[in-house]
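Hey team,

Filing this mostly as a record. A colleague (T.K.) asked me to run one chain through the structure pipeline before their review meeting, and I want the input and output archived in the tracker in case anyone asks later how it was produced. No errors, nothing strange. Just documentation.

Input sequence:
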Amino acid sequence: MAASSPVFLDAVLTPHRSLSRRGFNLLMLVLGSVSFVYGAVFIALGAWPVFGFLGLDVFLVWLAFRASYRSARQREHVRLVEESLTVERIDRQGGRRHWLFQPYWLRVVFEEEDEDTNRLAIRSHGRTLALGTFLGPAQRREFAERLQRALADWRVYVEGR
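Output structure:
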């Protein structure tokens, strides 16, 4: 039985969403109920068009959250094993793209202008691939450190063979 190749990094990067589906449903229930009650009051006062605008507000909030949750479908799977580093990117529509890098030549490029602005990329043989563009600056910084540690562990492993 052959030994399996060691995995130095296996990470899935996803956009952060502060509101879960359950929280979203609760928010929409509360917002819809409040708008309905206020709409009923305005109908009783004879200002019936306000009811339609309150319903439109609830619909627009729902539409905005739907767009936000759709963008949350994007993800990047970064995997570093003995022979390669692979990146699989899944976009908002579900389209997939793959990149394959030889780790020996790979360099992590982390550019930071200030605490709130940074960029993470990997570079090899003149090719550059940005990673975690949908992450916040702190998460990108943390992943850059994690990726650099994994590459350092990979180099120690390769040199020790």
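Quick notes for T.K.: DSSP finds three helices and seven strands in the chain. The first helix runs from residue 21 to 44.
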